[in-house]
Amino acid sequence: MATAVHMMSPLPELSRDVAEWVNSVRELTQPRAIHWCEGTEAEAHGLTDQLLRAGELTTLNPQYFPGCHLARSAPNDVARVEHLTYICTRSQQDAGPNNHWMEPQAAHTKMRELFRGCMRERTLYVIPYCMGPIDSPLSRCGVELTDSPYVVLNMLIMTRAGRAALERIVHDGTFVRGLHSTGELDPERRFIMHFPEELAIDSFGSGYGGNALLGKKCHALRIASWQARTEGWLAEHMLIVGLQNPKGETHYIACAFPSACGKTNLAMLIPPDSMPGWRVFTVGDDIAWLHPGKDGRLWAINPEAGYFGVVPGTNPQTNRNAYEMIRRDTLFTNVAATADNQPWWEGLQTGTPALDWQGRPYDPARGPAAHPNSRFTVAAKRNPGYSPHAEDARGVPITALVFGGRRREVAPLVYEARDWRHGVLVGASVASETTAAMVGQVGITRRDPMAMKPFCGYNFGDYWQHWLNVGAKLTHAPRIYHVNWFRRDAQGKFLWPGFGENLRVLSWMLDRCAGKADAVDSPIGRLPRSLDMAGLNVSAEALAALLSVDGPLWRKETSEIRAYLGQFGERLPQELLQELSRTEAGLAG
Ligand code: GTP
Ligand code: SPV
Ligand code: MN
Fold this sequence. Notes:
Blueprint: E1 4-5, H1 16-29, E2 33-36, H2 41-53, E3 57-59, E4 69-71, E5 85-87, H3 92-95, E6 100-101, H4 104-115, E7 123-131, E8 140-146, H5 149-158, E9 160-161, H6 163-172, E10 176-181, E11 191-195, E12 200-204, H7 209-212, H8 215-231, E13 234-236, E14 238-244, E15 250-256, H9 263-267, E16 279-284, E17 288-292, E18 298-301, E19 306-310, H10 320-325, E20 331-333, E21 336-337, E22 343-344, E23 375-379, E24 396-404, E25 414-416, H11 420-428, E26 431-433, E27 445-447, H12 460-473, E28 479-483, H13 502-513, E29 519-522, E30 525-528, H14 540-546, H15 551-566, H16 574-588
Parallel strand pairs: 1-2, 2-7, 4-20, 5-6, 5-11, 8-10, 10-12, 15-24, 24-28
Antiparallel strand pairs: 3-4, 7-8, 7-9, 11-12, 13-17, 14-15, 14-16, 17-18, 18-24, 19-23, 20-23, 21-22, 25-28, 26-27, 29-30
Helix pairs in contact: 2-5, 11-12, 11-16, 15-16
The protein binds guanosine-5'-triphosphate, sulfopyruvate (SPV) and manganese (II) ion.
């Protein structure tokens, strides 16, 4: 049967590379039709209607949630699959001990067999997209080919997709090739393959965000981190936020926390009542591309155009802006629903669930009503705190970089690295408890350097060397910090209130950067002498615990860090071991 082409390529004569590739994928996958995405609102409406008719989406209560829809995924397809995610480089050493590796030809053969004929009776969607502002020299483009209209709807929100991106691809002369099919959603036939040397991605068998929206983790982190290394910049799992102090000065910081460890919430922070005059502006909530500028500072863009955020826990107290933002024009995935068809999730504080995330009558014996990794997809411009500089072509200048993890003990609330080199060690040493964002056990502490364990497209040893090299180019390098909002007491209660109150910690950092705040030296870095605690209900003992460095625990920690870094052998920069030795000497003394 001949393929029906619903729409010709909008620029057929100009985008020959794209057209030829689409053609070869058509021959392999045998779709019934091809749809070239234009990126218009009418197109998104059409796709939504189609998914509604097919029963793959439901409309949420239009009185309270206008323009909002609910998608329920297959129950076995709810998170990223790190154990099925591969970096396919010619040399296994280049992928490093931090990645699963497959030889590229073997991976291509495997994927070709999975893709062969997989789109029969389905439509192949061509999504040209741009990661970053369409007019920014720092942006990079890709094309995702997918048979999932749900993926298209998400990509239309999360990226600048359609005609403008295709024009930019023609202009750039290069693009990342991402091929995706939901397949049969069989976890035994599910693979997320990356070919950084070919700027290509093959994803089969999952419709979930990080596995299927190829512009996001696959392109903007795994492939982009590889490109960034060759081009002299950094692609990081970081939020970018602008903090305006009561004097009206705005500083931008970028923070790397592992998945489901607070990036979206920090990026959308609401200042506490006790800090009047502060304003917070979101630039990005998940990914930052950082470039050394001619002025010796580090400049950041957010390559995304939307948020794919964790729903549970969102309420007017934790994150008022997110709570307001997701009340309209939002695509929900795997939340519960009330009897009158409003979305519901754990931590919402109002309403009761009637149906769980699988659409079954809610029964608490079966676990939470909303999936712990249920997500919202919404356009960034819906955020009331969206920064007026979020789309600046040159990006925003970064004053401080922050690493953090989710740790019930060991890591203090905040400390400052001695300098960039020590900061790279601090980033390389991040550890965090696993969350529902990935398939596997939750709450297991693992090393997650720079929050990039699942996302670095090459050997971590080379990556840390690249971080050192970038720092050497900066005459005005950001200071580097480590935070932990997740310390707990013996009863398991959080010691720190978190969310908006985190601004107290950030303002100390900015004061440090301005040379205005005191710090106390410790073997692991510098801690605040004091924090602004006005109006905060945290006991003196809790604060002391939050700001202390426990010698025995830290000696154990540094020996674990040494063992972890040891895996990287010859690729590990010696500077990191020198910094570690310095920390160890301080702890021994
Ligand atoms: P990804 O989108 O997976 O990369 O996650 P993220 O880092 O953006 O995480 P997000 O901000 O969505 O937070 C995940 C979970 O952590 C949510 O359930 C939040 O309610 C919770 N959380 C966020 N910030 C804090 C905090 O400061 N303290 C505490 N205790 N919990 C927090
Ligand atoms: C994460 O897991 O870090 C996310 C969600 O931000 S996903 O897009 O699925 O990677
Ligand atoms: Mn993320």
